[in-house]
Design a protein that fits this description.
There is one protein chain. The chain is of the alpha+beta class and 412 residues long. The protein has a domain of 208 residues: Ribosomal Protein S5, domain 2 (2-Layer Sandwich). It is built from 12 helices and 16 strands. It has a 6-stranded mixed beta sheet with strand order 5-4-9-3-1-16. α4 packs across α6, α7 crosses α9 and α9 runs antiparallel to α10. The chain is globular. The relative contact order is 0.16. The protein binds alpha-D-galactopyranose. The site of alpha-D-galactopyranose (GLA) has 11 residues, from α6.
């Protein structure tokens, strides 16, 4: 989708004034993210290492003057009205986004209304008064940079502040994830909402998704290494169905091994369930490969956090490449376009490592690179990528340098 050059703050504010004929009472922001390593581990109670990035979603908000809730997405030029935040339901087969307080599962409105509905359950004034809000974002939509979590967390931050309820960031993340499950119909883990709510400038967060403990891990100084995002501009349609299938396969593997989650699996335990050993009671070939990815990815994530702390960027890069190979071969969530981006980046001197980031089947790859190598990626990747994949004329890979930023907040 085309993105205006105007900052999202200006667009959200202008859209609010245009639609609701006054200035917003307050503004809130929440970032997108890239995950440095630890992919598909969050819903297996494992470890992830994301950063919040400098692309963000802005929500401008005020109380409604009529008790009807009105929401407007400036980037989509689309609006919706809801008369009762307490009786909202999501339904998959609606012909339109909103129909009589029901919202179509997975529509942009469903992300917003899921959050408002959850908040209205704990903030009676929200349910009674309704809100007017406008949204604009600089997080590319559907690119695996978590535009949806940044939308949910921005709406939650804005509406909670307006309603005067203070929600601890972990609870806010959980409330948003629940909205994504029930309204958007995506059975995601906690990583995206967690980092959108709790990101820290210049640091990655090593999150233990079982205990929800988070440790700060300092990023290298920008003179030494930066994170480069390479957006493939493709999104393969099987993404959401495959995501749910991966979750189910992981659960099935746990049942076979008699453990609660794959977090509890070790290489030794896995070796007892190798498909060719177990004539009965073993894992299927697919279950084994999926479980091997989770077990090895958890180990890589902890090792990468330690290497980052020790300034061993070659080691971080090696682990990123190994993570990509495991996602490609064992977990099978990569695609040719992401493999190309990783391959092209890894050949450039000064690139420590590269991998796909997020759910996969399109979206973005990232590289950790020296500043000089990063500039080269920005300049050279689009043409090199186009030479290998037939892309529509206006869809060159989008390559940009990013850095670790803070999580959601109300703007002064
Ligand atoms: C998506 C989900 C996250 C996580 C990643 C894969 O981004 O929203 O919860 O599972 O995929 O690591």
């Amino acid at each position: 989708m085309p993105f205006s050059d105007q900052p999202p703050l200006d667009r959200a504010t202008a859209a609010f004034s245009a639609h609701f004929a006054r200035d917003p009472r307050l503004l809130a922001a929440a970032p997108g993210r890239v995950n440095l390593i630890g992919e598909h581990t969050d819903y297996n109670d494992g470890f992830v290492l994301p950063i919040a990035i400098d692309r963000r979603t802005i929500v401008a908000i005020d109380w409604s003057r009529t008790a009807t809730t009105r929401i407007h997405a400036a980037d989509l030029n689309s609006s919706a009205e809801l008369t009762d935040l307490k009786s909202l339901r999501a339904a998959p087969d609606l012909a339109q986004d909103v129909d009589n307080n029901r919202v179509r599962t997975g529509s942009w409105v469903s992300y917003v209304t899921g959050v408002l509905s959850n908040l209205a359950a704990i903030a009676p004034n929200l349910a009674a008064r309704g809100v007017e809000l406008s949204i604009a974002t600089s997080v590319p939509l559907g690119s695996g940079l978590s535009s949806s979590a940044s939308l949910e967390v921005a709406v939650a931050t804005a509406a909670a502040a307006l309603a005067g309820v203070s929600i601890p960031p972990r609870d806010l993340a959980a409330l948003c994830r629940d909205a994504e499950h029930r309204f958007a119909g995506v059975p995601c883990g906690i990583m995206d909402q967690f980092i959108a709510a709790m990101g820290q400038p210049d640091h990655a967060l090593l999150i233990d998704c079982r205990t929800q403990a988070a440790e700060l891990v300092a990023m290298p100084g920008p003179d030494r290494a930066v994170v480069v995002v390479m957006d493939s501009r493709v999104k393969h349609s099987l993404a959401s169905g495959e995501y749910a299938q991966r979750r189910d396969t992981c659960r099935a593997a746990c049942r076979v091994m008699g453990i609660e989650s794959l977090r509890d699996a070790t290489p030794e335990l896995l070796s007892r369930y190798t498909p060719d050993v177990g004539s009965s009671g073993g894992l299927s070939t697919i279950e084994f490969a999926r479980a091997r990815h989770i077990v090895s990815e958890n180990a890589r994530t902890l090792a990468a956090a330690a290497a980052l702390r020790a300034g061993k960027l070659d080691e971080v890069g090696r682990l990123m490449l190994a993570s990509h190979a495991s996602l490609r071969d064992d977990y099978q969530v990569s695609c040719p376009e992401l493999d190309t981006l990783v391959d092209l980046a890894a050949r450039v001197p000064g690139v420590f490592g590269a991998r796909m980031t997020g759910g996969g089947f399109g979206g973005c790859a990232i590289a950790l690179a020296t500043p000089a190598a990063a500039d080269r990626l920005v300049r050279e990747i689009p043409a090199a990528y186009r030479a290998r994949h037939a892309l529509p004329a206006n869809l060159d890979a989008r390559v940009f340098i990013t850095s670790a930023q803070s999580g959601a907040g109300v703007l002064a």
